[in-house]
Amino acid sequence: MQFVISMHINPAVLDALTDEERQALGQGHGEFLEGLKASGELIITQALVDPSQAAVVRVHDGQRVVTDGPFLEAKEYLGGFYLVDVEDRDRALELAAQIPDAAIEGLGVEVRQVLFSDGQLEA
Questions:
Q1: Percent of the chain, pLDDT > 90?
Q2: What does each C-alpha distance from 37 to 6, 43, 59, 80 come to in angstroms?
Q3: For 10, how many CA atoms within 13 A lie in the half-sphere containing its CB?
Q4: Which of 2, 17, 23, 41 has the fewest CB atoms within 10 Å, i.e. the most exposed one?
Q5: Element containing residue 77 per DSSP (H, E)
Q6: CB burial class (10 A; 0-12, 13-18, 19+) of residue 60?
Q7: Hey, what's the torsion of the CAs at 11, 14, 15, 21, to 10 degrees?
Q8: Are 83 and 113 in contact (CB under 8 A)?
């Protein structure tokens, strides 16, 4: 079963972390990633730039309209994800609890099963 484990970032929470806490967060992700690779459960992981560098595309009357910046004004945004292939939902939840963000008040880790997938991931 495939699951997306996504990290939801609140910049105010990250800004309030000490240098040591930020370093521990990065180190924790590195250790988590190595564990996923070793277990063979990792499909891919991606980190995303912050929403200030995003663009929203809409089509009105057949014309493309591009707006810079995030789609919605929000405190939190999607910071990245791990796509994993695991035995069941319980294992996905177990993995999500190992992500260091899950232990930081104000950050979130979401687990969602993949409903449909198509295409090929580059190696």
A1: 67
A2: 17, 9, 41, 17
A3: 13
A4: 23
A5: strand 77-85
A6: exposed
A7: -170
A8: no
* Tokens matching residue 83: 């796509």
Structure tokens belonging to residue 61? 């009357």
Given a cut of 60, whether residue 123 has pLDDT beyond it is: no
The answer, yes or no, to whether residue 23 has pLDDT greater than 90, is: yes
| Residue position matching structure tokens 């707006």 | 67
**pTM for the structure as a whole:** 0.84
Per-residue H/E/C for 78-113: EEEEEEEECCCHHHHHHHHHHCHHHHCCCCEEEEEE
Which tokens belong to 120?
């090929």
| Domain ranges for the chain | 2-113
- One-letter amino acid for residue 13 of the chain: V
- Residues forming a β-bridge with 81: 6, 46
Between 89-98 and 19-39, two packed helices, what is the crossing angle to 10 degrees?
Answer: 150
How would DSSP label each residue in 35-51?
HHHHHT-EEEEEE---G
Distance from C-alpha of 92 to C-alpha of 97, rounded to nearest angstrom? 9
